[in-house]
Amino acid sequence: MLQILVDEDECIGCGKCYEICPKAAKIWEVNRVARILDLRYCHVCTLCAMECPTQCIKIIRPGQEA
Prior knowledge:
By secondary structure, this protein is α+β, with helices and mostly antiparallel strands. It has three helices and four strands, in the order βααββαβ. The chain has a single domain, classed as Alpha-Beta Plaits. The strands form two sheets. Strands 1-4 form a two-stranded antiparallel ribbon. A hairpin with a 3-residue loop joins strand 2 and strand 3.
């Protein structure tokens, strides 16, 4: 199963992941930190991880280790 992990200690809550995500309203919630709501809508485009200024988003595909 696809996982997106957000290191909450590193996340600054800037919202860049939300801004760049094509399905942001269904996937992301950003307050003090970014949190995943529902990955069923994720296309695994990895834009969120690429846009993150603190590199706190890690995308783990099936068969990969965390």
